[in-house]
Amino acid sequence: MSALLEIRDLYLEFKTSRGRLKALNGITFDIQPGEVFGLVGETGCGKTVTGLSILRLLPRSATITSGQVLLEGTDLLALSRSQIESLRGSKIAMIFQDPSTSLNPVFSIGSQIERVIRQHMQVSRQAAREKVRSVMAAVGLPDVERILGSYPHQLSGGMQQRVMIAMALSCSPRLLIADEPTTSLDVTIQAQILKLLRELQKKFDVAVILITHNLGVIAQTCDRLAVLYGGRVAESGSTRDIFNQPQHPYTRGLMNAIPHPGTRGKKMSTIPGTVPTNPGAMTGCSFAPRCEFAMERCSLETPPLYPLGENHSSACFLVEPKP
Ligand code: SF4
Q1: Residues 206-247 pLDDT 10s
Q2: Which of 20, 97, 127, 272 has the fewest CB atoms within 10 Å of its CB?
């Protein structure tokens, strides 16, 4: 099967008052049609910037210095502004952590979803309204008629996020990017939204990139994942392979930090140290200052992604094949 999205050797930097901050340093991964793919790492590892790069929704201070983002073979980085704008919402849609900031407070829910549909599809007002009702029902919103006329502040956080998902799916995109979609919600609602994403991925045959800092969320939801660190892929593979046999010390650190039933009240395991602020300016493995296995070589050379079998790879010298 050919990939739906291919991110190839993506480099990005921010211009700051302290100079150039190299945030993405050669990110490479593929998304297959209809899969749920997790991008995981701590804050500052490059996951949100990667998501925003796909849709070119980056702040002015950011520049993609090299690489490709190929959607069905078309490089999105080479498209004109109007071409990428028409693609947003129609082929690729994105939802964010806080739905209340994404919804317009002065328009009713029905009119906001209808506007998105009419912007991207040549349909009559009547057909657009029918589509609004069908996507709202598909995301499990109860009492559709009442919610159509409601304003965002009249809905709970969980319902607002369902509205955002309905809006994102209203034009049948091929790819949905969900950036921490459950972080602002309470635990019960989080589980419902993750279950919903999984169901909708099958129903709408849409691929999903789920961006999260929480490996537990990935375990429940994703087919495959990439663990990011320092703006690079530290480890990637199927969820089963990575959870059964994590190979990168950073992945193992994240896994040890997942809370399990029965650990309440006990001190959680954490990874010592902090994420580097300018990983691209470092020599060697950007995880070396925090890694208990670091060798002399680790601060001199950057480890490549070593393949470990079908679909599993790790960027660590510990898994380098013996000559
Ligand atoms: Fe640790 Fe070295 Fe592996 Fe980096 S390459 S994760 S520093 S052992």
Answers
A1: 999 999 998 988 998 999 999 999 999 999 999 999 999 999
A2: 272
- CATH match of 5-91+173-269 with 3.40.50.300: yes
Q: What is the 3-state secondary structure (H, E, C) of 76-135?
A: HHHCCHHHHHHHECCCEEEECCCHHHHCCCCCCHHHHHHHHHHHHCCCCHHHHHHHHHHH
Distance separating alpha carbons of residues 69 and 72, to the nearest angstrom: 10
Average pLDDT estimate for 49-65: 96
Contact 68, 79 (CB under 8 A): no
* pLDDT at 265 > cutoff 80: no
Residue written as tokens 């509205």?
163
Which of 285, 290, 301, 319 best tests ligand 1's pocket when mutated (most atoms within 8 Å of CB)? Answer: 285
pLDDT in tens, 108-130: 999 999 999 998 888 999 999 99
Q: Where does ligand 1 bind, in terms of residues with CB under 6 Å?
A: 248-249, 285, 287-288, 291, 293-295, 298, 303, 316-318
**CB-based contact 182:122 (threshold 8 Å):** no
Mean pLDDT of 25-51: 95
DSSP string, 238-256: EHHHHHHS--SHHHHHHHH
The answer to whether 228 and 42 are in contact (CB under 8 A) is no
Considering the chain, what percentage of its residues have pLDDT values greater than 90?
78
User: Crossing angle, helix 157-169 and helix 187-204, to 10 degrees?
Assistant: 10
Q: Mean pLDDT of all residues in the chain?
A: 92
Tokens of 204: 């709408």
Beta strand spans in 221-310 (E): 224-229, 232-238, 306-307
| Radius of gyration of the chain measured on its C-alpha atoms | 20
- Helix (H), strand (E) at residue 173: none
Domain ranges across the chain:
5-91+173-269, 103-172
